[in-house]
Design brief:
Blueprint: H1 3-46, H2 96-128, E1 145-148, E2 154-158, H3 174-184, H4 196-210, H5 219-228, H6 235-251, H7 254-264, E3 266-268, E4 271-272, H8 274-282, H9 291-298, H10 313-329, H11 335-342, H12 358-372, H13 374-379, E5 383-386, H14 390-406, E6 414-421, E7 426-431, H15 458-467, E8 475-478, E9 483-485, E10 488-491, E11 499-500, E12 502-505, H16 506-511, H17 515-525, H18 527-537, H19 562-573, E13 577-578, E14 584-588, E15 596-597, E16 603-604, H20 608-618, H21 625-628, E17 642-647, E18 653-659, E19 664-670, H22 688-702, E20 716-721, E21 725-730, E22 750-751
Parallel strand pairs: 1-5
Antiparallel strand pairs: 1-2, 3-4, 5-14, 6-7, 6-19, 8-12, 9-10, 11-22, 13-16, 14-15, 17-18, 18-19, 20-21
Length: 753
């Protein structure tokens, strides 16, 4: 079709659209406005005509006496009224500009009337489709979410049943309702369903700034949302929620609404309503709840998983105290009661349910809630195929408990194991503690908790050193040193064995985990540079101002999580590519949630040659023999494995982290309350290493790939050093001297002064 013809049809279409709206406007004028105009004109015209006055002649009647006198006939003159003619209104010929302006007015009027009609129609349909608040508690039953391992084995079914046992408000202690009102809706008794001051304004702010459509809900809004609406986060759903809340307030009293809320909302697990929650967490009826127990339960509906005393006991305690503080601020309790309550310890009923890999399951649940929202996870019927291998998980749990029993005398009460696949980031096993069900503290997930990594952070620092011009053959001086810093006390690092080892190559300094050379290297490359690099590698917890960190950072002075260490070591194990840990392979959604599959997305962070050299050092059993011996638990006969230990100076944390191209295994042992382990604990060998050794051996023997190792990259060259031993260099750095007559191949330690 020719371009001119297309242009013709385009402008013709525009003309038709404009003509339509002008026609609507003219029709509106004729139908609505012209009759009114004619009436006004007629009325005004009639006022100009006046009926003339008719003056009758005076008749004098003579006084007539008998006999009777006939009166003469009197003819009244006829009166003619003038004819009234309607004014004929003619449209004067208008100037062209005025005609255009008139057409524009008609067009605007047509558009406005059309929009009003459409809005009225859509509003009618919107209101007509709203559910009836009288059906609260009768509809909107939830669908359970299923979590499976990678082989289709069911790990957990979230909210399989909605166990409800209704209770009346007058059966409950007054503080049960007061705790809920204090934390959820302090103006509950003073608004008509929505709160303009604290609710709607906050919701508008959340929608506009934080893109969050969950905030700003009153108790009434939460009730209708839970009972009648879908969990989707849309403005349309929020409008429905507001309308239904106003409607519900006309149907029910405040106490009825509060009672339905307490019987309707989820409190975690399969418990819906305050009665089932009391039984689940405290093994008692709701009428027997104490103030502190009621405050604990009142804080759960906002985020049952986040504030669960089983999966997040510290968060549950913090939330409980927030509720108590709100009750005190709103004068439901006095200061004495408040101070006593926040210092009260609670005993929760042990969690009795069929669940596999509980730490991993609740980690998955938390991730799903962040992605889809709490209601969608609890009631949306998702089917989640996770990355976890239940066979590996159960073997890791078994090994952890058996090995912890052997070192109980060293005051080691807990441990954790994390297994990932470096090439994809898939979590194959997550053992967050020795026994999830033992006590509430057993539910604490160490793999996501902050702990000091000790010397296990050194490979990350040394990989940065290789970027800055160091080589595996660079000679480092392991001799006494004191670092002075303005405003801080002098810092004098010492080695784990309390000895000095003289001049040693970087390979031996890292393999034997000497502290002093590591601190000297960090002093050279700079703490701020190391902070930036570590964050790029996956350490997300070092976010304070660089001035808050010191040279002890390379010895584990900054807290990390096991998941972050899996990310950072994963870069080394995956030839320089970073892939954060992932928990799912596939998520099957429903009408509200589309299905999704996991596809690894990797980012190159460092050169492959650097990871090859670091991995070779960490797998060099000869190089680490002076500190660990030749037959330590770090060596797996028949397999080449990179491995590093880490122990904090105060013996609060003990790590072993090792990997092959196929598997990454991280093990931590210690105590949840940060109490030190026995000082007889040998660095990395007595505590975490035996657990790591058994888990890694199980993987290599049962899942194949154990004999594979990394191919030497093109940018790496080998050169003989140290009496014929081979050393690896990045191309261009091999010219660095790697033999020194003053260097002892076997470092000769000297006693610490």
């Amino acid at each position: 079709m020719k371009k001119s013809l297309l242009t013709h049809y385009f402008f013709k279409a525009i003309y038709l659209i404009i003509s339509f709206f002008i026609g609507i406007g003219e029709l509106a004028k004729k139908v609505l406005f012209l009759p009114i105009k004619y009436f006004i004109v007629i009325f005004e015209s009639s006022r100009k005509w006046r009926i003339p006055k008719v003056k009758l002649p005076k008749i004098h009647f003579p006084v007539i006496k008998l006999p009777v006198i006939k009166l003469p006939a009197v003819k009244i003159p006829s009166i003619e009224f003038p004819k009234m003619k309607l004014l004929k209104i003619r449209s004067p010929k208008l100037h062209f500009t005025k005609r255009i302006f008139l057409k524009f007015r008609y067009f605007s009027l047509g558009v406005i009337l059309t929009l009003i009609a459409l809005f009225a129609f859509q509003s009618y349909r919107f209101v007509e489709a709203l559910p009836d608040p009288a059906n609260i508690g009768k509809t909107n039953y939830s669908l359970s979410t299923h979590i499976y391992d990678r082989n289709g084995k069911l790990l957990y079914e979230i909210y399989r049943d909605q166990n409800r046992t209704p209770v009346t408000l007058n059966q409950l202690p007054s503080y049960v309702g007061q705790a809920t009102i204090a934390i959820e809706d302090k103006d509950f008794y003073h608004h008509g369903g929505i709160s303009l001051t604290s609710g709607i304004i906050r919701a508008i702010r959340d929608m506009a700034i934080e893109k969050n459509l969950q905030g700003g809900s009153t108790i009434t809004q939460q009730l209708v949302k839970t009972a009648l609406l879908t969990p989707d986060r849309t403005i349309q759903r929020k409008i429905k929620e507001i309308i239904l809340a106003l409607w519900a307030e006309r149907l029910f009293t405040k106490n009825q609404i509060l009672e339905m809320y307490l019987n309707q909302v989820p409190y975690g697990g399969a418990s819906y309503g305050i009665e089932e929650a009391a039984k689940l967490y405290f093994d008692k009826d709701a009428k027997d709840l104490t103030l502190v127990e009621a405050a604990t339960l009142a804080g759960l509906p906002q985020a049952p998983s986040l504030y669960s005393p089983y999966s997040n006991p510290q968060m549950a305690l913090t939330r409980r105290n927030e509720v108590l503080k709100a009750m005190y601020d709103q004068k439901y309790i006095n200061k004495e009661t408040y101070e006593k309550a926040i210092n009260t310890q609670l005993d929760f009923k042990p969690l009795a349910t069929t669940i596999h890999a509980p730490h991993f399951v609740f980690y998955v649940k938390s991730q799903l809630e962040n992605a889809y929202g709490i209601n969608q996870v609890e009631e949306g019927g998702l089917k989640v195929t996770t990355t976890l291998d239940l066979d590996i998980q159960e073997e890791a749990e078994k090994i952890l408990n058996e090995e912890l029993a052997k070192v109980k005398y060293l005051n080691i009460t807990n441990g954790a194991v994390l297994v990932t696949r470096p090439s994809t980031g898939e979590i194959l096993a997550m053992v967050g503690s020795a026994n999830y069900f033992a006590t509430p503290s057993g539910a604490f997930n160490v793999t996501t908790a902050l702990r000091q990594p000790g010397s296990s952070i050194k490979p990350v620092m040394y990989s940065l050193a290789l970027q800055k011009g160091y080589t595996a053959a660079t000679i480092l001086d392991d001799s006494p040193v004191v670092f002075q810093s303005a405003g801080a006390p002098p810092y004098q690092p010492v080695n784990y064995d309390l000895r000095y080892h003289g001049k040693v190559p970087l390979r031996y300094a890292l393999a034997n985990s000497f502290n002093i050379p590591a601190v000297k290297v960090l002093n050279t490359i700079g703490v701020p540079n190391f902070l930036d690099y570590a964050q790029k590698m996956g350490i997300s917890t070092w976010t304070d101002n660089p001035s808050h960190y010191g040279l002890s950072l390379t010895l584990g002075g900054g807290e990390v999580t096991m998941l972050d260490m899996a990310t950072a070591y994963g870069v080394l194990a995956n030839r320089g590519y970073k892939i954060p840990p992932t928990y799912y392979l596939k998520i099957d959604g429903n009408n509200d949630v589309s299905s999704r599959e996991f596809h690894p997305f990797k980012i190159r962070e460092i050169d492959e040659g650097i990871t090859y050299i670091i991995s070779d050092i960490l797998s060099d059993n000869f190089a680490r023999q002076w500190e660990f011996g030749t037959n330590s638990g770090l060596e797996i006969p028949g397999y080449k494995v990179a491995v590093k230990t880490g122990t904090t100076d105060n013996k609060k944390d003990n790590w072993t982290i090792g990997y092959t191209p196929d598997f990454l295994v991280i093990v931590w042992v210690g105590n949840n309350d940060n109490t030190p382990m026995n000082q007889a604990l040998a660095s990395g060998i007595t505590g975490a290493a035996p657990i790591w050794h058994r888990v890694m051996t199980y993987l290599l023997k049962n899942y194949g790939g154990g004999n594979q190792w990394y191919l030497q990259p093109d940018d790496v060259v080998a050169k003989k050093c140290y009496y014929g031993r081979k050393e690896y260099f990045l191309k261009g750095t091999e010219k660095t001297a790697c033999s020194d007559t003053s260097l002892n191949v076997s470092p000769t330690p000297t006693n610490h002064p």
